[in-house]
From TrEMBL:
Start and end residues of each RRM domain: 18-96
Domain Fe2OG dioxygenase: 201-322
Record's protein name: Nucleotide-binding, alpha-beta plait
UniProt keywords, alphabetically: RNA-binding
CDD domains for the chain: RRM_SF
């Protein structure tokens, strides 16, 4: 959902504004946004009521004019409001931030479709699974133990991915992929209509849970670890995935975790919006030669709309473990000896 962004209230009521920051008020204390709008509409035309943060107990009430906001503040601040369950409200003025202060300065134009990026081998299908299937998948992984990393939680199936070596131990098989992902695997062959070479015989799954604001460092999945098709299913929350291709191989491998990338001839940046229930395929050039990266943001700008990330995003990444050396057409990005 695209929402305006407001500055934190600053002491006192001396700075008039048409926007009010209202504490002890919101869904977490049993008040709907519609009921709040109705109560504050007694003092003027309300443009909108927005969550002030993720707590659910503070909102922004935005009026058409400053005089209406001033009237509401004088009438309701630190007084019980019978129209809102007799709650005592705490109100201050708040000022909407300009977009230049809201949107991350390192953002890049974001595509909604993979075809807009024009990266060979990258495909995206929206609504790949249903909302009911999404709920079932989340319930299934939440019923199983998570492994804690520094900023996110993971689960591995089929084979465990070892982050210290960026590879898998093919001698340590965990078993078959779990039965609860059958609804996903049954639909994967549809990608062969987009890419005839897409591999659909998958034997490794990594489930990642990203809290709000947590992303993924730039990287290319190790060539020697996995075959050419990598599928990533996004659940619960949206995110932006950025792709980077360096003309200087050292920039890609010597500093592969660096999050700095300029728009010079050394680095090309493109990005795509991944909504919940969408499935992304990385194959060919997009898999072997482009880094992919999830910026560490809580909000993103998508086609002039501010998108706020959810409290969590869960990704299901399906791959096929490679049993021999990689023979790709991108040796400058490949770790397999030729």
């Amino acid at each position: 959902m695209g929402l305006p962004k407001f500055t934190r209230p600053k002491g006192g009521h001396e700075e008039l504004s048409s926007n009010l920051y209202v504490a002890n008020c919101g869904p977490a204390v049993g008040l709907t946004l519609d009921s709040i709008e109705s109560a504050f509409s007694l003092y003027g035309t309300v443009k909108g009521v927005y969550p002030a943060d993720e707590s659910g107990c503070r909102v922004i009430v935005s009026y058409d004019d400053e005089s209406s906001a001033q009237t509401a503040l004088k009438a309701l601040d630190r007084k019980t409001c019978s129209d809102l369950g007799g709650r005592s409200l705490h109100i201050r003025y708040s000022v909407q931030r300009p977009l230049s202060q809201v949107v991350p300065t390192d953002s890049v134009q974001v595509s909604l479709e993979a075809s807009e990026m024009n990266i060979p081998g990258v495909y995206l299908i929206h609504d790949f699974i249903s909302a009911q299937e999404e709920e079932q998948l989340l319930a299934a992984v939440d019923a199983r133990p998570w492994h804690n990393l520094a900023k996110r939680r993971v689960q591995h199936y089929g084979y465990e991915f070892c982050y210290n070596i960026r590879n898998v131990d093919t001698q340590q098989r965990l078993g078959e992929l779990p039965s609860f992902v059958a609804c996903v695997l049954d639909k994967v062959p549809v990608f062969q209509k987009l890419d005839e070479a897409a591999d659909v015989s998958l034997d490794q799954l990594t489930v990642n849970e990203y809290p709000s604001g947590v992303g993924l460092s730039p990287h290319i999945d190790t060539h020697s670890a996995f075959e050419g098709s990598i599928y990533s299913l996004s659940l619960s929350g949206p995110c932006i995935m950025e792709f980077r291709r360096y003309s200087n191989t050292n920039a890609c491998f010597g500093d592969r975790d660096a999050e700095s990338c300029d728009n010079s001839s050394n680095c090309i940046r493109k990005a795509i919006y991944l909504p919940p229930r969408s499935m992304l395929l990385l194959s060919g050039e997009g898999r072997y030669a482009w880094q992919h990266y999830i910026p560490h943001h809580k909000i993103d700008m998508v086609k002039d709309t501010i998108i706020r990330r959810g409290s969590r995003r869960v990704s299901f990444t399906f791959r096929k473990v490679r049993k021999g050396p990689c023979q790709c057409d991108y040796p400058q990005f490949c770790d397999s000896p030729r």
